[in-house]
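Q: A reviewer asked whether we had any structural model of the full assembly, not just the individual parts. We don't, so I'm hoping you can provide one. Inputs are below.
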Amino acid sequence: MLRKLTMHHYEQIKTIIPPNKLQEFKETYISDLVTWYAFGYYDDANTLKGISCTYFSGEEPEWYLLTQYCDDVTDQEMMINEVCARFEKYGLFRFNWVDLDCSMDFMKNFIPDRYYSFKDYETKAWQRPKYKKHSGTLYNSSWFTVNSEVYYSILKNEDRTF
Amino acid sequence: MFNLTHNNHYKHFIDGELFGVRTNKFQQYTTDVGTIDMDYYLKNDYNKERLRIAQLQYNDLGSDLVLFVSGGLDSEIMVRSYVEQGLKPLCIIIKFNGDYNSGDVNEAVDLLTELEVAYKIIDFDVKEFYHSGRAAELAREIQCELLPFLVFFDISRTLGVPTVLGGELLIEKYRIVNHAHEWVLRNFETYEAAHVRFSKIYNIPFVIEWFSYTPELMLYYLEHPRVKSIQLPTSPFLSITPVKNQILREIIPGLRKKSKGTGFENLKGLLHESKQMLGALMPENIGDSHPYLTYKEVMIKLQGTEQC
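A: Here is a predicted structure for the entire assembly that you could use as a starting point for your response.
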């Protein structure tokens, strides 16, 4: 089950997010901002298993799947599936995600059936991304120390029910 | 009009009107820089010039001026220049509630203690400033969308005294027409020109161009071999930012070692969202035209060889 995380979940969040990332996470995803959200993935026993960070564009009908915090790959896959499904209901059918070569190989092969998915562009280590608007969101206003790839996914026509 | 650079040599125009204010989306924003005194330039160097700048600012703005010190390298150079010139104006350190910039504050305190300069720490709630709408009010008034600058402006209007901030001289590789790339002197209408509008509205001199204060200081820097070398076709850099501190350390030995930071590392979400939200309050097309001066144009203007 997926829930939007708020300040009330802070104690649970502490069990997932590394201590050195905690303050930045708190200020970005569970503060009063309207474009940055985090979703918690809960198992049947109501235990927080993973956290999915997202950014909603205020200008384009798209959203970005950002950092994923989850130890278990299966949990992570289910979590992302749920996040994607959630946004379909909201009528947002385009999304981007970025992944780091070194840490998230799994994401490269993650192509849900209902999406056309393709590699949008690559960014070399220490270089700025191709699109300026991605530098403040997908790239968190900094440079990645390794090569990275941005994927772009569009919901297939037959799945567009709105 | 106050001297916001020496004799206001660094100018901007709105449709040809000096330091004009944008009223519609069709107006063009342009910038210009002054010319060096060649005799003076040849007899001096970067380090003598920065001391002269401290004295010039002190003479122009008066003894009650304050320096905003962030703890970074730029502000260290600014403070050291004053101290080496025998001047010790009051320094202001901004401490964000929530300890977002506690590392920077500590470095600034250490620096000012070492230099024996009087300082005052001002506590500031940046989130309250944004969410209360005060930032939006000020942003609309002075046509500035960047939250860190609005923080400086808000504190300056509260203090009501001439303010000096160590802004950097930024050159970047920029894509111009036909996908060609040129190295340009960046000057954003939405914030680097906002200090002029602030000074006019609140009648408080606010200097933001410390490293462009005189044409001579600009030219000493732009003629530095390292600055020239980053523009070679083989150079991997797209901006001077990654090597700026190294270059300044070469020019000015004895600067303190410190981590590079802005104080907003933990507030990137707020910074990004505020820029979008406040950007929506800006006049249409502001900042969309980029008539930056290219590096070559700046050099010609500074050297005064335009007519030749």
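A: Points you may want to mention in the reply: The longest helix of chain B spans residues 46-61. The CA atoms of residues 269 and 275 of chain B lie 10 Å apart.
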